[in-house]
Design a protein that fits this description.
heterotrimer, A mainly alpha (138), B alpha+beta (733), C alpha+beta (287), A: 138 residues, mainly alpha, Ubiquitin-like (UB roll), DNA polymerase, domain 1, three-stranded antiparallel beta sheet, 36% helix, B: 733 residues, alpha+beta, Aldehyde Oxidoreductase, domain 3, globular
Chain lengths: 138, 733, 287
């Protein structure tokens, strides 16, 4: 038995963070076969053969993903500890719903807690990313 | 090209944070690491009889540290020097650290927790402020003669008792430290999550009996602090260092969430009693305020929290007779400590709720009552500070009222509410927050910043002020770039490492931009002046010319640096003995409005809209400044409605994120932020400190809104649905 | 903080039979999506031993139309899958509402309906909807399959009619005709990512203004999910008036047994349960 979170971090992918170890804060979120999951609650056995995307896998070379760039431009990250999980949650949302309303963004990110921002800049960043992205290419 | 001061430059370390490359303490692992855990008292008070180690474990694999292993002084260096790093004979609170164990395998370290028993003979604990018999500190602020004023005729007198509960900072990154010790040469280095490297630095020297020059503290990327990593990290750093000292191995200590919530500091709970006398047309005549804080088992920073709370207790009002008696008492719960606002949110909560009740008693609406009593330029605050800078609370309030649609909404809600399942209300709070350390605090800190030129022509800022999400790195870059006529990318902010940077003081008290930023500005100006005065640079120059001059100067003279030390602004006088005078160099002023819905089916209170208007001197970076206000208001909403520390026998019973409720994205409204700017000469580009200001206004505005929406009179925070139901039931019984 | 994992083993079975064999011999406990069990593990409170993973077993997945109408949901169907199902959204909206409020998206992607049932928390979000829909539950073991009405499945706090070696294999929702009005309302500690303090699922048929049939189920107000038969009896065959609504709210008190706990109080739960019932019965008044 092992937590996917610990295996990822031990492999040097330390971008995925442990904020609570209870599946409440979402800081450990990764994409498992395209689905957003909390890696602190995912046993390694359930990740066997899976395609996993961590925050490190989002940008290509030096080009940031549109969501990352929008977070940067809109002030969506303050202390940054919730940011990897939050960005992946946003990417996951946009892949399912390329043109969300602000309410849909609010709901899609409800499982990711941020203590610094009050979420306003985060929503602005996600909506800005939508505007910048060609449809359905998250 | 990125803007200098006044523009929304993107966060300097933003890219690293967004790509997962920023290194927080748990992201690194020096080779040979062992993992430390803290074994803590299960009872609130008692004498330690002994320790028992389950024989099923091979303890020779473990490093074990008790108080007996401490080379120096077993006291956490702070104010009262009353708190041990490790309890020796007595425990004063549940979760008090008694011993430390470490093992190369983190799981074995964790497993050891359950296999060590601390035998304690319990003693009766003091678990509430009412039962407390020991006091850490008291202060009193006196203006005029409250007793005489209260005895005058034809006054309306309103009394009220208010309370606030503890609040957990809940930074999403728990506390953590890595320590490496070199016993042979007598030195220790600590890396970790922290706000104040130099607090830890001085403390470790005393703990390990080392000269300060042999102690090095380095701040790593820090995932939130809010005061929770102001003084507390000294303890976890000390623990990691002790294990490193004993074992000779690098040590990592990372708290689990539950441990962090249960054992580290929280916001001081408070109780405030108000007695306010006004004339029949609503003019304040006397304010008599008793303000009490629960300090928990050790003193930590309680005197300073009390000080700030006491000084802010009478608010931005002109009242000829004021008495504030503040005290902070000792109880046997984990010590309370710094949390954004630092005493002011507690006293301002009580004040602003009281002001609404006084307004109601004399038949005035809350805005009009305040208008009749606001301080103006030239008035004197209760603490004896004459306001010498422009202040216009009337304009701030008016702007907030207009932006929130206050009057029209209040009227509309009053009409619709009687037949509605969801009652709506709107409420306000007006307040100020002093920036920088109180009184002579900044003089004692004597902060220092150095700016230096680099051989490649770049510029480096050396300060101990930490980036904890609020934007220190970016603000300092903007300030330095503007002072030098350079671009932000030309400026490097040195990692706060006590071996490298001078002591610019702690990253607290809303001082980083205003006080330390001012030193950055003057030190940066200093190197420009050196280059110009020495003929290396013309007085107007291009970026390229600057770089070239810097290179040449350093090639010739070896280095280029300018150091600035804090000097107090002129005419700021404070008397520690009488506790009167200019308490703060400047204040930021604010008016906040909250609109709420109260659902009479579920008793849930939801904030639907929030307007935050504040005068802040100068906004250096609009995105960062707005982010500070939004985040602070969010924490205030959490404190007001959701965040309830459940105490059982002196322990936090809900020490899990599933049971200690902070707001999610679905629980918060859009928070609308507006700034006014009246430049303050003592701040860089005119900026005042704003980090804590937003924490003061949300809770009272919300409570006032709930009182507007319903006919209850809420006075105790947090106002959970369960408490609202009790108030409603009592009202409608 | 890496939790202690001593003595914990998650075995991925060769197939359904292999899993059932391990469960029959008492060798292992079932492990579905893990969103409850892993929380215990992280807190150091998961009972040590072997767990057998059901996650990979195709037989336990899928939302299928039943021959006699109605729908069969595999125990390992996740709440995200339920949310995405057209059939669910159209015909069983309360289960979709429940699914949308179980944690956040990350939880819903992993939490399963079988796990939500078998974890047997009184605060579980799906059970009230399942009771209100007259769900049946299918239990599978090496010995075969049996079906029970879901309403009686939970017999006490964390106790259920699950024999050794049995797992929940499918949840069956009977066909419903169009005359029902549904109302699901979860009151949590906050608007998302919350454990329920009171959760009501109600379904009502009106014949003119007479209540011809009604189902009321509540969570978080008793050691198990409760079917509120006393409240139902106070309404069946009656018209909805102030008097009957008050009568039903009073009768409801006999159906529930709320407590004070870390999240809330018995008084609050009583008040909200009654209020939710009244609000459900009089939707036009809800503004």
């Amino acid at each position: 038995m092992a937590r996917l979170l610990d295996v990822l971090r031990a492999a040097g992918l330390t971008g995925t963070k442990e904020g609570c170890g209870e599946g409440e804060c979402g800081a450990c979120a990764v994409l498992l076969n395209g689905a957003l999951v909390n890696s602190c609650l995912t046993p390694l056995a359930h990740a066997a053969g899976a395609a996993i995307t961590t925050i490190e896998g989002l940008a290509s070379d030096e080009q940031l993903h549109a969501v990352q760039q929008a977070f940067l431009d809109c002030g969506g990250a303050q202390c940054g500890i919730c940011t990897p999980g939050m960005v992946l949650a946003a990417v996951s949302l946009l892949r399912r719903n390329p043109n969300p309303t602000e309410d849909a963004v609010r709901e899609g990110l409800a499982g990711n807690l941020c203590r610094c921002t009050g979420y306003g800049r985060i929503f602005a960043a996600v909506l800005e990313a939508c505007r910048r992205m060609p449809q359905a290419t998250a | 090209m990125q803007p200098g001061a006044g523009g929304s430059a993107v966060r300097r370390e933003g890219r690293a944070k967004l790509t997962g490359r920023a290194l927080y303490v748990d992201d690194v692992a020096p080779p040979g690491l062992i993992h430390g855990v803290t074994i803590r008292s299960p009872v609130s008070r008692g004498t330690i009889r002994g320790l028992r180690f389950d024989p099923s474990l091979d303890w020779s694999e473990y490093t074990i540290v008790t108080a007996a292993d401490i080379p120096g002084i077993n006291i956490v260096k702070l104010i009262a020097d009353d708190q041990p790093y490790l309890a020796d004979r007595v425990v004063q609170h549940a979760e008090e650290p008694v011993l430390l164990v470490a093992h190369p395998d983190p799981m074995r370290a964790e497993a050891a927790r359950r296999l060590i028993t601390i035998d304690i003979d319990p003693l009766p604990p003091v678990l509430s402020m009412d039962e407390a018999s020991e006091e850490f500190k008291r202060y009193s602020v006196v203006k005029g003669d409250v007793d005489r004023a209260l005895s005058a005729a034809d006054l309306v007198v309103v009394e009220g008792d208010y309370s606030t509960g503890a609040q957990e900072q809940l930074y999403i990154e728990p506390n953590g430290m890595i320590a490496v010790a070199d016993r042979e040469h007598g030195g220790v280095t600590v890396w970790g999550s922290m706000q104040c490297p130099y607090y830890i630095h001085g403390a470790l020297a005393a703990l390990l009996n080392l000269p300060e020059a042999r102690v090095r503290v380095v701040q790593m990327e820090t995932g939130g602090g809010f005061g929770g990593k102001e003084e507390y990290p000294t303890i976890i750093a000390g623990h990691a260092a002790l294990l490193a000292w004993k074992s000779g191995r690098p040590v990592k200590m990372i708290y689990g969430r539950s441990e962090d919530m249960a054992s580290t500091t929280k916001r001081h709970p408070s109780r405030t009693r108000h007695r306010t006398a006004v004339t029949r047309d609503g003019q304040l005549v006397a304010m008599d305020i008793d303000f009490m804080l629960d300090g928990g088992a050790y003193c930590t920073l309680s005197p300073v929290v009390l000080s700030r709370g006491t000084i802010h207790a009478a608010g931005p009002y002109d009242c000829p007779n004021v008495r504030v008696r503040g005290r902070v008492v000792k109880t046997n719960v984990p010590p309370h400590g710094a949390f954004r606002g630092f005493g002011a949110p507690q006293s301002i909560f009580a004040l602003e709720r009281q002001m609404d009740r006084v307004a109601q008693a004399v038949g005035l609406d809350p805005a009009e009552f305040r208008r009749r009593n606001f301080v103006r330029n030239g008035d004197t605050l209760a603490v004896g500070q004459t306001i010498r800078e422009p202040v216009d609370m009337h304009a701030l309030l008016q702007r907030a009222l207009t932006l929130s649609g206050f009057a029209a909404k209040r009227a509309a809600f009053a009409r619709a509410n009687p037949s509605a399942r969801v009652r709506k209300g709107i409420g306000l709070a007006t307040f100020m927050h002093g920036a920088g350390f109180t009184g002579s605090g900044e003089v004692h800190l004597a902060s220092v910043v150095t700016v230096e030129g680099a051989a490649d022509g770049g510029v480096r800022v050396l300060a101990a002020s930490t980036e904890i999400g609020q934007g220190t790195n970016t603000i300092f870059s903007q300030i330095a770039a503007e002072a030098l006529g350079l671009e932000i990318d030309d400026i490097e902010i040195a990692q706060p490492d006590t071996a490298v940077v001078p002591n610019s003081g702690p990253t607290v008290a809303s001082r980083t931009c205003m006080v330390v930023g001012k030193l950055v500005e003057s030190a940066a100006t200093g190197i420009r002046r050196t280059l110009v005065d020495s003929g290396y640079l013309p007085s107007t120059y291009t970026r390229a010319q600057f770089h070239h001059a810097c290179e040449r100067y350093i090639a010739r003279f070896g280095d280029l640096r300018s150091t600035s030390q804090y000097t107090p602004p002129p005419n700021v006088r404070w008397d520690d003995e009488t506790y009167t005078g200019d308490a703060y160099a400047t204040y930021a002023w604010a008016a906040y409005v909250a609109e709420v819905s109260v659902d009479l089916v579920t008793w849930e209170i939801h904030v639907d809209d929030f307007v935050a208007v504040q005068e802040v001197g100068r906004v250096i970076n609009p995105t960062l400044a707005t982010g500070q206000i939004e985040g602070g208001v969010a924490q205030g909403i959490g404190w007001a409605l959701y965040e309830d520390v459940v105490w059982r026998e002196g322990r936090m019973a809900n020490a899990q994120m599933t049971n200690y409720i902070m707001p999610t994205s679905m629980d918060l409204p859009p928070i609308r932020v507006y700034f006014e700017e009246v430049p303050y000469a003592g701040g860089p580009g005119g900026a005042k400190g704003i980090g804590e200001l937003p924490m003061d206004g949300a809770a009272p505005a919300i409570f006032n809104a709930v009182a507007d929406a319903t006919d209850v009179d809420p006075r105790d925070l947090p106002l959970t649905p369960e408490r609202l139901l009790s108030l409603w039931a009592a009202r409608h019984a | 903080m890496i939790p202690v994992l001593d003595g914990l083993d998650l075995h991925v079975p060769a197939g359904l039979d292999d899993a059932l064999r391990m469960l029959a011999s008492g060798d292992a406990r079932p492990f579905a999506g893990g969103t409850d069990l892993m929380v215990l593990l992280d807190a150091g409170r998961l009972p040590p031993g072997r767990y057998v993973s059901l996650w990979e077993l195709a037989e336990l997945r899928g939302i299928r139309e039943e021959p006699r109408g109605g729908v069969s949901i595999g125990a390992l169907v996740t709440f995200s899958e339920i949310r995405r199902s057209h059939a669910m959204a159209e015909r069983y909206p309360m289960l979709c509402a429940a699914a949308a409020q179980i944690g956040g998206v990350a939880t819903q992607n992993r939490a399963t309906i079988g796990g939500n049932i078998a974890n047997a928390s009184p605060a579980a979000d799906a059970p009230p909807a399942l009771v209100a829909y007259d769900a049946e539950i299918e239990l599978l073991s090496l010995d075969g399959v049996r079906r029970l009405p879901y309403a009686g499945f939970h017999t006490g706090y964390k106790q259920m009619q699950l024999a050794r070696g049995e797992i929940v294999s499918r949840v069956l929702l009977p066909a419903r005709d169009r005359g029902w009005r549904d109302g699901y309302h979860k009151v949590g500690t906050r608007r998302a990512q919350a454990i329920s303090k009171v959760c009501m699922a109600g379904s009502i048929r009106l014949d003119g203004d007479i209540v011809s049939d009604i189902r009321l189920a509540l969570g978080s107000v008793a050691p198990t999910v409760v079917r509120c038969r006393a409240a139902e009896a106070a309404l069946r065959g009656r018209s909805i008036t102030d008097e009957t609504v008050d009568g039903a709210a009073q009768a409801l008190l006999a159906d529930i047994a709320p407590i004070d706990d870390i999240r809330s109080t018995a008084a609050y739960r009583r008040s909200v349960a009654q209020n939710l019932l009244s609000a459900f019965l009089r939707p036009a008044d809800q503004k």
